[in-house]
Amino acid sequence: MTEPEPVDAQEAPPWSPEQGPWPRVRTWPPAEKPGLYIRVNGRWYHCWVLARHDYADGRMAYQVDIKLPGHDGPVSRMYWWDPRAMRAAKD
Q1: Is 4 helix (H, G, I), strand (E, B) or coil?
Q2: What is the DSSP track for 10-72?
Q3: CA 68 to chain centre
């Protein structure tokens, strides 16, 4: 079985009433945050998951701290789950 061609992660907009009920949000204690690799602008970045948002329509978004070029430190972003653009970090 071949792996799917990687794509860039798509940023999720902030929740709005048009998206249905508030998503269910799961968070982790600081010492237990899972790591992810997320592909942005053709490059894989390691980041820490702050929260997972489960929407009523079945979509999931991950809120992460990620160090992107042009920023002095990590920034908080939320990306729609896509296995072609995200993979678990083993750390």
Answers
A1: coil
A2: PBPPPP-GGG-SPPEEEE--GGGPPEEEEEETTEEEEEEEEEEEE-TTS-EEEEEEE--TT-S
A3: 14
Region of residue 59 (left: phi > 0; alpha: psi -120 to 50; beta: else): beta
12-28 CB burial, b ≥16 within 10 A, e <16: beebeeeeeeebeeeee
User: Which residue shows structure tokens 């929260």?
Assistant: 51
8-state DSSP, 73: S
Inter-CA distances, 77 with 3, 41, 50, 64, Å: 26, 14, 10, 6
Report which of 90, 83, 73, 70 is spatially closest to residue 9, judged by C-alpha positions. Answer: 83
Lookup: tokens for 40: 């942005």
* pLDDT, mean of residues 33-42: 96
Give per-residue pLDDT as tens, 55-71: 999 999 999 999 999 99
Question: Looking at residue 91, what is its pLDDT?
Answer: 60
